[in-house]
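This section describes the prediction task in plain terms. A model, or a person checking by hand, is given the sequence of a single protein chain and must write out its three-dimensional structure as a string of tokens. No templates, partner chains or ligands are provided. The sample shown here is typical of the held-out split.
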Amino acid sequence: MAKTQKELAFLRDLYVQEEWTQRFTELVDKYVDLSDSENLLYINAGTGTHALIIDEKHGEKIDVFASCENEDLLAIARDKGLAVKAGVDFSAMRFEDDAFDAVVSDATFVRPEEVEDAIADAARVARTGGDVAVFIPSAGSYGEVFSVLWEVLFNENLGEDGAIIEKLVANLPTTGKLEEIAERSGMVNIHTETVLEAFDFENGAAFVASPLVADFLLPIWLAEIDEDEKELVAEKLAQLIDVEDADLSFRFSVKATLLTGEKE
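The expected answer:
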């Protein structure tokens, strides 16, 4: 059964932030220099954890603003901010062009066909010379999952006999593609940093039942098939993983990528 937006917001805060998002935000903490910034916008801030971390580190000199994807995420982020008396201004508004010295955008759950728009929007709100950072899974991610998922769709005669997976693989942006998009979006001094992250699960059932997979990744991967078919695919996916891996745990890898640049 599909979860409500409110339920998904709590799952994102309780599980996804630590298990998934933190792997990407560590790249921001390592490679993004905010020393010259007076204000910062965090796009797709989720439940606000990383925006609050930035505020804790830099809040004395940087005004931090954060936009959350929906009202339920926003409510959690605001409550967390109030609890620690942070200065982050959380909202769900669309910000004006050329307004921020630094922009950080979480594109980890952006559909591949919407990546260019996400990068362009991050560049849009940065001022001339402002720093832009977008983090996202890049090409080569999910290979272990996609190979099994392709087989399930083919066996069940779903998703145009696996064509959905072929399209997902093809649409995951390479680092070169990300840099090209950034250039088209008006950025210069463009760089990418990538680390390989591994996600481990006890077995196939644990994999498909995890909030990260069941509620956030599978809905993106299987967006083109019906809800009842998604349940069938999840069941068959767990079974096939266990058949192929026997008593071994299941692991998939993600190329966590940070795209940075300055607005020209």
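For orientation: The longest helix spans residues 5-31.
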